[in-house]
Design goal:
Strand content: 25-35%
Distance between the termini: 62 Å
Structural class: alpha/beta
Strand order of the largest sheet: 4-3-5-14-6
CATH topology of the largest domain: D-Maltodextrin-Binding Protein, domain 2
Mean pLDDT: 84
CATH superfamily of the largest domain: Periplasmic binding protein-like II
Number of helices: 10
Helix content: 40-55%
Low-confidence stretches: none
Radius of gyration: 24 Å
Shape: elongated
C-alpha cells in the first residue's frame, strides 16, 4: 500500500464529501480513490467513512484521524518545498484567506504583482469576511483586519494600523450640514457595519475623552464596499476604514467630518502557522506585503 497516496485520497474525500469529487480533485478515477481509502481502512483496521449512495461522511474515528493525516501531508509538503526553495527560484503553492473588501481592492492586485515576480508560485486566494483559523482550515496565511488575536499556535505579524474616518458625500453635507459633535450622529442618517459586536454604536475618542454614540442607522451591511457606495450616493454618514474609502476621499467624492474625533485603530495582520515560516516563499511574501502596505499606506495619502 502506498501510504501517502492513501492519505491524500482519504483527505481529499473528506474535504470534497464524495469519492467522485475527490477523484476529480486528484485527477484519478473514482475507483482508484475508493480503492486507496479501502486499503487505508484495512491497514488501520477501522472504518473512516460512513457511506451512502449520495455522499460520504467521516466517522468519529475518521475525524480524529483526519487532523493527524492533514498534519502529516502538510509537513511533507513543507519539507519538499523547503528543499525546492533552497535549489533556486521560488516555487510551490500558497493558500491565502482575506476579507472581501481588502482582498478585492488591495490584496488581489498585490498578489498578481507578486506572482509576476515569482512565476513558479501558485496562489489560491479565498475571500471571506469570517474569521478563519489557518491551522484548522488548511491555509498558509490569513489576513485579519481588526484587533490582535491571542493565539499562541500562530505567528501574528502586524503590518500596519488602519485608520477609520467618518465621511459623507459633499451633496449629503450640503443638504444636511456638517455634524458639529458626535451626538449629532444620533439624528443624521448613518450607514453602519453589521458584523461589529457594537452594532450601531460608534466609539469615538475626542479632545474631551471617549464618546459612545448610538447612530441613526438607515442602512446596515456586513460589507464595507456597500456602505462606501451608499455614502458616495448621499444616503448617509459612514465610519469606514481608509483602505475602503481612500480612493473616494482622494477624488473628493467623500469628505471627512468630525476630524477631531477618531475611531480606535484596527490592525492589518498576517496570521500563519510557525512551520509555514520555514518556507522561503512565505518569508518573501511577508516581506513583500510589508513593503506594499506597511509604514504609510498609499490609501492614506488624503484623509
Amino acid at each position: 500500500m502506498d501510504r501517502f497516496a492513501s492519505l491524500e485520497a482519504f483527505k481529499a474525500t473528506a474535504d470534497q464529501g464524495s469519492f467522485a469529487a475527490a477523484a476529480r480533485a486528484l485527477n484519478l478515477s473514482r475507483s482508484q480513490v475508493n480503492k486507496l481509502v479501502i486499503q487505508l481502512e484495512d491497514h488501520l483496521g477501522a472504518q473512516l467513512f460512513n457511506r451512502t449512495t449520495r455522499q460520504v461522511s467521516l466517522t468519529s474515528t475518521g475525524r480524529a484521524f483526519y487532523d493527524r493525516a492533514q498534519t502529516i501531508l502538510s509537513d511533507l509538503a513543507e519539507a519538499e518545498s523547503h528543499i525546492q526553495d533552497a535549489q533556486g527560484e521560488l516555487q510551490g503553492e500558497l493558500k491565502i484567506n482575506a476579507p472581501m473588501s481588502f482582498g478585492t481592492a488591495h490584496l488581489g492586485p498585490a498578489l498578481i504583482d507578486f506572482m509576476q515576480d515569482h512565476p513558479k508560485i501558485r496562489i489560491q486566494l479565498i475571500l471571506d469576511d469570517r474569521f478563519i483559523d489557518p491551522i484548522a482550515d488548511g491555509f498558509d496565511m490569513t489576513i485579519r483586519i481588526g484587533e490582535s488575536v491571542d493565539m499562541p499556535s500562530l505567528i501574528d505579524h502586524e503590518i500596519v494600523e488602519a485608520k477609520r474616518v467618518i465621511c459623507a458625500s459633499p451633496g449629503f453635507l450640503k443638504q444636511h450640514g456638517h455634524p458639529k459633535s458626535p451626538q449629532d450622529l444620533s439624528q443624521l442618517p448613518c450607514l453602519h457595519y453589521g458584523n461589529l459586536p457594537t452594532g450601531n454604536r460608534w466609539r469615538l475618542i475626542g479632545p474631551n475623552g471617549a464618546h459612545d454614540v448610538q447612530v441613526n442607522g438607515v442602512l446596515c451591511s456586513n460589507n464595507a464596499d456597500v456602505l462606501r457606495d451608499a455614502a458616495v450616493k448621499g444616503l448617509g454618514l459612514a465610519l469606514l476604514p481608509t483602505f475602503v474609502a481612500g480612493a473616494e476621499l482622494q477624488a473628493g467624492r467623500l469628505v471627512t467630518v468630525l476630524s477631531d474625533f477618531q475611531a480606535p485603530m484596527i490592525n492589518l495582520c498576517l496570521l500563519y502557522p510557525p512551520n509555514r515560516h520555514l518556507a522561503a516563499r512565505m518569508r518573501v511574501l511577508v516581506a513583500f506585503l510589508y513593503d506594499r502596505f506597511g509604514d504609510k499606506p498609499y490609501w492614506d495619502l488624503v484623509t
